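Q: My labmate handed me this sequence with no annotations at all. I'd like to see what the chain might look like in three dimensions before we decide whether it's worth expressing. Could you predict it?
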Amino acid sequence: MLPFLQEGDGLVVRQVDWQDIRLGDVVTYRFADKFPTRRVVRKIDGTLVLWCENWPARRFRAAQRDVLGRVVARERNGSWLKRRDPAWRRATRQALIKFYGAALVKKALRIGSKAKRKISAIRNRAQKNASSSPSSPSS
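A: Here is what I predict for the chain of 139 residues:
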């Protein structure tokens, strides 16, 4: 899947109330002297956690005061795609599935690694206990 936004795309950005920002929305925000546009993957208190498909391992944050607006339309090669269009909604779903799917895989791998270490520690203790315990007398 190509990234939803590409270099050279034209964007229409409209102001949005903080409470109206939803997971999957594409927002533009102020970061130093730049105005990046990224997808919302989490909303925590007064901060957005943002992600873009062309840097899948990176996460970005934007404070409420830095959000300039939500992208409502994208133009590419003379063709417009609007926020309410089925293709836009499909791209939003696919992006969120990709993001959260990768997050679940990472979490599962961490849990598996932790379980493997615990099992190894239990085996080591059991072997240590077995070798240090006195043998039973033979009759």
